[in-house]
Every structure is written in C-alpha cells, then in structure tokens.
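Q: Please design a sequence for this.
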C-alpha cells in the first residue's frame, strides 16, 4: 500500500542504528520528519512528528500517487539581545515523499494537526476492499425416458 521513496534516508537510519550517533565521521541528527503508518479497518493512517511547526507552515500535495509533505520549522523570535547557547533543533524546510499504492483513495485524504503531530487518513479504495463473489451454478435436471 505504501512504499518509501527516500533510499538515502533509509541508509542514514541504518547507519545511525549500527554506529550510534556518529556515522561516517559526522554527527547525525534524528530524522526531521519521522512517520508511522498503520492500517485501521478501511483506512490507512500516517502520523508525522512535526514539533514546533505551525499548522500554516505545512503543505501537503499528491501528484500521480506520490504524497509530498513539506513543513517549515521557523526560529523562535527571542529579540535582538538573545544569544544562542545551544542550538540542536533543526530549522528550515523539511519534506517527505511517499508512494501511495493504487489500493488507496488519494482523492479523499483527510489531514489533522494537533500537538505537533500531523495525521493523514487515507481511505482504502473501493476496488481494493475485499468483497464477496457469488458463484452461480448450473442446475442439472434429469429426464428419464421410460420405454413402454
């Protein structure tokens, strides 16, 4: 139903798991837009973590079964006299692309954003839902011929 389209993100994730926080001599950060996906009855649910992102800074597009989620995390305005001591929170524009299979109805995606979590609900397409098929049988009628 859903296929990843970011091979390098997957490679980075595996390297981070194998080597800890330092991979290939550089310090890696967690993925800026981690996602969980679930099948829940007749819908597919995607949950993206976007803490610190305003709802108006999220853009969702679908083109030819490719779902693109873009979000911008902007710096907090602390005034002119603020001096950064530690800056670990990544800022800027983040995007994630996922291929949606033909079994999903990309025309009816519902999006909700609450407490830093973007939840997309994608209905399973009618053509992909299980259905019962009745079997029609041919009735055999025997005719007996009695010789008399």
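A: Design:
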């Amino acid at each position: 139903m859903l296929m990843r389209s970011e091979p390098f993100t997957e490679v980075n994730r595996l390297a981070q798991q194998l080597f800890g926080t330092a991979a290939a001599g550089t310090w890696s950060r967690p993925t800026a837009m981690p996602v969980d996906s679930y099948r829940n009855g007749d819908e597919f649910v995607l949950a993206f973590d976007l803490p610190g992102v305003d709802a108006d800074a999220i853009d969702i597009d679908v083109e030819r079964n490719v779902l693109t989620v873009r979000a911008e995390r902007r710096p907090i305005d602390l005034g002119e006299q603020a001096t950064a001591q530690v800056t670990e929170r990544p800022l800027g524009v983040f995007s994630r692309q996922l291929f949606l299979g033909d079994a999903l109805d990309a025309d009816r995606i519902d999006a909700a954003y609450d407490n830093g979590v973007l939840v997309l609900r994608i209905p399973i397409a009618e053509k992909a839902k299980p259905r019962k098929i009745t079997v029609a049988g041919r009735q055999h009628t025997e005719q007996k011929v009695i010789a008399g």
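Q: Thanks. Anything notable?
A: Strands lie at 2-4, 22-23, 26-27, 35-40, 43-49, 58-63, 66-73, 92-100, 110-114, 117-123. Residues 21-28 have pLDDT under 50 and may be disordered.
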